[in-house]
Every structure is written in structure tokens, then in C-alpha cells.
Design goal:
- The protein is mostly helical.
- Helix content is 48%, strand content 7%.
- The chain contains 7 helices and 5 strands; from the N terminus they run ααββαββαβααα.
- It has helices at residues 12-30, 42-69, 82-124, 160-163, 186-198, 208-211, 229-233; strands at residues 72-73, 78-79, 130-134, 152-154, 174-178.
- Strands 4-3-5 form a 3-stranded antiparallel sheet, with no helix packed on it. It has a two-stranded antiparallel sheet with strand order 1-2.
- A hairpin with a 4-residue loop joins strand 1 (72-73) and strand 2 (78-79).
Length: 244
């Protein structure tokens, strides 16, 4: 880097570190890489990796902006000393990358697992046309997932656009494919979508396999000020490799 890191000149090395880290999570969840993935699943994996690059750029931008803002002590309007800034910047950096970074990695593994599973579900839906929502029920089961446990709906039911796992951070739920049979009453499905969906963060109201993404547009990193929209459309000046 040239030493002039700011919101308009983002650290490429840091961006590469983020994307490499999350890409490893995607490969782990998908149980494949660009070299080993099947031809049918290659477009899905490629789209998900492109989403990782956009996520990495947004995170780099948001973190750089926050750390840059720490140069000024807003309580008294003074410039922080180098020692003060380095201390608080290090704490902020560690939070972004150690705490949030681990959560993002685990989320990418889980979403990639579900995306790969959804690809298989689509391939088999002519003979196994229904899905069962399966939660691990114990003392830590969330009020999002518990009501959905045992729900059965057709593979093509739009309910799976919103409540297909993962439905929150550290979600342990999955779906199980079934041959055609009884499904949950539609009015009950609608009520489950209302109650569970009402407790769910918007960024989890998606289907990684259908949407071909790891992180939804409602993730906080993608919440960009209007003045920065055009910069965001250019991936904040950071490269997306044509060939991963």
C-alpha cells in the first residue's frame, strides 16, 4: 500500500485477505472448488464467489470509514494522539475481523452448504417434490426456527424463498427432501411465515441456492450513503477477478 489509505483509496491487500478467507468458507460449504465443481453447479458457485467479492469490498469500505473516523474524538472535537488512535483502532480492527470475521466465515459455510443442497433438491424435485423443515430442538433453539420445525411444503412453494435456512447467525436448521405427500395447510404456512419472518433479520429472508448469493443485499455492509452509491457500483474501486 502507498500509505494514503482512506475511503476512496481502499487497502487492496486487506480486501484480498477478506475475500480469500470467505472464499475458503464457500469452498468448504460447497465441498468443491472452481476446479472440482460439476458443470451444472459451476454457475451457482461462480455467482456466489462474485457476491463474496462485493461483500469483501463493502466490508473494506465500511471498516476503513469507521477507523478513519476514529482520528477525531467526537466528544470534545479534538484530534486523537497517535497512541490514543492506535489503541482504539486496534480494538476496532480486532472486533471487525476476529469477532465478526468468525461469524461471517461460519455464515458463508452454512449458506454454501444450503446452496449446494438446494441445487440437489432442484435436480430431484420431480420424484421428491416436498421439503420438511428440520430444526435441532433444544434449550438454544431460536424463536425463529422452533415454530417452523416439522413444516412441510412443496419444493416450489414460495415459502422457501424466505425461510430456507440459514435463518439467523449460527442457525443449525436444514431441510429434508420428501416424496410427495401431505403438506402443511397453506393458512398455517402463511402464519408461520408471518410469525417466524417477523423475528428474522431481513438479510436472512433469502434462499442461498435460488438467489445464488452468500450475503443478501440487506446485510449492513451494503447499507451505503447516497453519495457513495456510484462508488459502490464500481465495487469501491476494488477488483473482481474475471477468472477466480
Amino acid at each position: 500500500e502507498d500509505g494514503s489509505i482512506n475511503e476512496l483509496n481502499l487497502p487492496v491487500g486487506y480486501y484480498n485477505a477478506i475475500t480469500d478467507y470467505i472464499k475458503r468458507a464457500v469452498y468448504k460449504g460447497f465441498k468443491a472448488s472452481i476446479e472440482t465443481v460439476s458443470e451444472l453447479d459451476l454457475p451457482l458457485l461462480t455467482h456466489m464467489l462474485e457476491n463474496v467479492y462485493m461483500f469483501g469490498a463493502a466490508k473494506t469500505f465500511q471498516q476503513t470509514r469507521e477507523i478513519s473516523s476514529l482520528l477525531v474524538d467526537n466528544e470534545n472535537g479534538t484530534i486523537r494522539t497517535s497512541r490514543e488512535f492506535n489503541k482504539i483502532a486496534r480494538e476496532t480492527y480486532d472486533n471487525w475481523n476476529d469477532n465478526w470475521g468468525r461469524t461471517e466465515y461460519n455464515t458463508a459455510v452454512g449458506q454454501s452448504q444450503m446452496a449446494s443442497k438446494w441445487s440437489e433438491i432442484e435436480k430431484q424435485k420431480d420424484v421428491m417434490g416436498s421439503l420438511l423443515y428440520s430444526a435441532i430442538v433444544d434449550a438454544t433453539t431460536s424463536d425463529i426456527c422452533l415454530p417452523l420445525d416439522g413444516m412441510v411444503a412443496k419444493v416450489d412453494d414460495p415459502i422457501w424463498d424466505k425461510v430456507s435456512p440459514l435463518n439467523h447467525f449460527n442457525c443449525r436448521c436444514t431441510v429434508e427432501q420428501l416424496s410427495d405427500g401431505d403438506v402443511t395447510d397453506k393458512s398455517q404456512v402463511t402464519e408461520l411465515e408471518r410469525t417466524s419472518g417477523g423475528n428474522m433479520q431481513d438479510m436472512f429472508k433469502m434462499n442461498a441456492g435460488k438467489d445464488k448469493i452468500v450475503f443478501d443485499k440487506d446485510h449492513p455492509y451494503f447499507d451505503i450513503d447516497k453519495k457513495d452509491i456510484n462508488f459502490a457500483k464500481e465495487n469501491f474501486g476494488l477488483p473482481i477477478p474475471e477468472n477466480d
